[in-house]
Amino acid sequence: TFDLFFRMNPFKGEFTIFAGLSDCLKFLENFHYSETDIKYLRTVLPESVEDEFFHFLQQLSPKDVTVCALSEGSVCFPRIPLMRITGPLIVVQLLETTFLTLVNYSSLITTNAARFRIAAGKEISLLEFGLRRAQGPDGGLSASRYAYIGGFDGTSNVLAGKLFAIPVKGTHAHAFVTSFTGLEDLSSRELKKNTEGQGPDKDFVTLCVDWRTQLGEFLSILASEAHDGELAAFISYAMAFPKSFVALIDTYDVSKSGLLNFCAVALALNDLGYKALGIRIDSGDLAYLSRVVKETIECVGKQYHLPWFKDMVITASNDINEETILSLNEQGHKITCFGIGTHLVTCQRQPALGCVFKLVEVNNKPKIKLSQDVEKVTMPGQKEAFRLYSSDGHALIDILQRPGEDPPQVGKRVLCRHPFEESKRAYVMPHKVEPLYTAVWKNGQIAQNMPTLVEIRQNVQESLRTLRQDHKRSLNPTPFKVGVSDDLYHFIHDLWLENAPIGELS
Question: Is the model's pTM score more than 0.90?
Answer without folding.
Answer: yes
